[in-house]
Design goal:
Helices cover 34% and strands 20% of the residues. It contains 13 helices and 17 strands. The protein has helices at 3-21, 57-66, 83-92, 102-106, 123-132, 147-159, 174-185, 222-226, 236-240, 251-268, 368-381, 407-421, 429-449; strands spanning 26-29, 48-53, 72-78, 98-99, 113-116, 136-139, 164-166, 191-199, 276-282, 294-300, 305-311, 319-325, 328-333, 346-351, 397-400, 453-456, 461-464. An eleven-stranded mixed sheet has the order 1-15-14-13-12-8-11-10-9-16-17, with helices on one face. The chain has a six-stranded parallel sheet with strand order 4-3-2-5-6-7, with helices on both faces. Strand 5 (113-116), helix 5 and strand 6 (136-139) form a beta-alpha-beta unit. Helix 2 runs parallel beside helix 3, helix 5 runs parallel beside helix 6 and helix 6 (147-159) packs antiparallel against helix 13 (429-449). The chain binds nicotinamide-adenine-dinucleotide. Nicotinamide-adenine-dinucleotide (NAD) binds at residues 53-54, 56-59, 78-81, 84, 102, 117-120, 122, 126, 140-141, 167, 169, 224-225, 255.
């Protein structure tokens, strides 16, 4: 065996071993961009005055997060459940006026923007009324409850020239920005597979929330909450666990796939639905529901395949993305995942071992002389790099967000700055609609119809293949 080939092979193997052992893992703490207006008083004319519509679980989280965004002021809150008025005031730490009727807020001339965090089936109505009233809108994900809702919402927003931010906050994360930078650099090589999971194992993760003791028809405007959904007597379980039911929610796809797809679209720069989606899954543990507690979907994009999974039975994987490329693998691991390094999650890039070495496997069956001849030729065709010229990517790179970092604060700040400047947001109505179409509606169409869902761009409809 040629000596040179040995030395080359050893060089390759050493690189591979270093990668496998993670010996050279380099950890970088990412620095958030300072928010506009941070550390100084913002004048009244630059202050964005907003109101919140829907101040349940998410609405209160959003209100609390706005306290960290400079130059914004909450001036009103609306919910059709009375207890949530007090909850909203507590979240925003201010005695803002409250109402059950959001039209009162939309009539106010001093309200620049509204945050909409109502149940999925109410998004379309509240959103269209808000943009028609001239308000800019931060609308929670999934943007739409049906395919038609999304296109009607786009039309209304664009007709009224409104700023719209859809609420998949991770697209504003500094980790995702780094992931996009790595993707755009080409360091991953050709990526043919992207996998993402978001798993849970608790009653709360399966949306079986406790029913508040004062929830009843006197404290809740039940008919308005039902909206266009079929009429039925007050049902506290449906009121709090609405995600389980088709009439109001969108199941695991609307709750979690939309976040995963938004992240993938943002990082890869894709902003059109895939050609096809195939879903499977089922109801295994949590029986009281229309939607599955396990769902998988495989999507056909032009340049890669995406595989998503969410379950409510085991959370070993927690939240995780993997982008598999010819030259490297990129992982994003969410906060709380067993592997997560930082409170805000972590991103890692792992170079692939160099596979383009002289063939050893099939040449095992060659006579010695042929093998020697092959190896000598291979060596001539693959000369060793000169000293100092070797370019072997080795060692895992890990990026973490600092403790206390909030992508939600960044996402809200991005919206309010756009309201102020009229410059584009990171996740407008078109992006939000494609994410909902893909993550939510194509996935559910395939799951419920037991067929492959195809996107028909001509008619803006999902069809059977
Ligand atoms: N981006 C995220 O990470 C994230 C997290 C959680 C929820 N969400 C989204 O936020 C939205 C709200 O979810 P939630 O968990 O807060 O639900 P929730 O049931 O806790 O709150 C929804 C609130 O909207 C109110 N409401 C419904 N219709 C209304 C109307 N017409 N007028 C006034 N109030 C109305 C209800 O009374 C309720 O208090 C959903 O679309 C959900 O998918 C997003």
């Amino acid at each position: 065996m040629s000596k040179n080939i040995w030395s080359r092979r050893r060089f390759m193997q050493m690189g591979t071993a270093a990668v496998a052992a993670g010996a050279a893992a380099k950890v970088t703490l990412l620095q958030p961009t300072p928010l506009w207006g941070y550390g100084r008083a913002v004048g009244a004319s630059d202050t964005v005055r907003f109101a919140s519509i829907g101040t349940g679980v998410r609405g209160c989280e959003l209100l609390a997060a706005t306290l960290r965004v400079p130059g914004v002021e909450c001036v009103a809150a609306c919910d059709l459940y009375d207890s949530r008025h007090l909850a909203a005031q507590e979240a925003v730490q201010k005695q803002v006026p409250t109402t059950r009727n959001y039209k009162e807020i939309l009539d106010r001339k001093d309200v620049d923007a509204v945050i909409i965090a109502v149940t999925d089936h109410q998004h379309r109505k509240v959103f269209i009324d808000a943009v028609n009233a001239g308000k800019d809108v931060y609308c929670e994900k999934p943007m739409s409850h049906t395919v038609d809702d999304g296109f009607a919402m786009i039309e209304a927003a664009q007709k009224n020239n409104r700023i719209v931010q859809v609420g998949s906050q991770r697209v504003s994360s500094i980790l995702y920005a780094k992931a996009k930078e790595i993707w755009d650099s080409g360091r991953l090589g050709q990526v043919d597979t992207i996998e993402a999971v978001w798993d849970r194992n608790s009653d709360s993760g399966a949306w079986m929330f406790p029913i508040p003791p004062d929830a009843n028809e006197r404290t809740i405007d039940w008919n308005t909450w039902l909206g266009d959904a079929p009429k039925r007597p007050f049902d506290g379980r449906r009121f709090v666990s609405w995600r389980c039911y088709k009439d109001y929610g969108t199941g695991l796809p609307g709750d979690l796939f939309v976040h995963l797809i938004s992240g993938i679209h943002y990082i890869t720069g894709v902003n059109t639905p895939p050609a096809r989606a195939f879903s499977t899954g089922g109801i295994y543990h949590y029986k009281e529901r229309d939607f599955g507690d396990l769902q998988w979907t495989i999507y056909d994009y032009p340049k890669f395949q995406v595989i998503l999974r969410c379950n409510q039975n085991n959370r070993y994987e927690d939240q995780q993305f993997a982008f598999y490329g010819k030259k490297g693998t990129m992982f994003i691991r969410g906060a709380g995942a067993p592997q997560a390094l930082g409170a805000g999650g972590s991103l890692s890039f792992v170079p692939e071992p160099p596979y383009q070495t002289a063939e050893e496997y099939s040449t095992g069956s060659w006579p010695e002389a042929q093998k020697e001849e092959y190896l000598a030729r291979w060596e001539r065709e693959h000369p060793e790099p000169a000293a100092g010229q070797a370019k072997l990517e080795s060692g895992e790179e890990v990026y973490v967000a600092p403790p206390g970092y909030s992508d939600l604060v960044d996402h809200l700040a991005n919206f309010f700055q756009a309201v102020r400047t009229r410059k584009p947001v990171v996740e407008n109505e078109v992006f939000g609609n494609v994410a909902a179409l893909t993550g939510c509606h194509m996935s559910n169409y395939s799951y419920f119809n037991k067929t492959i869902a195809a996107w028909d761009a001509g008619s803006n409809k999902i069809k059977n293949t």
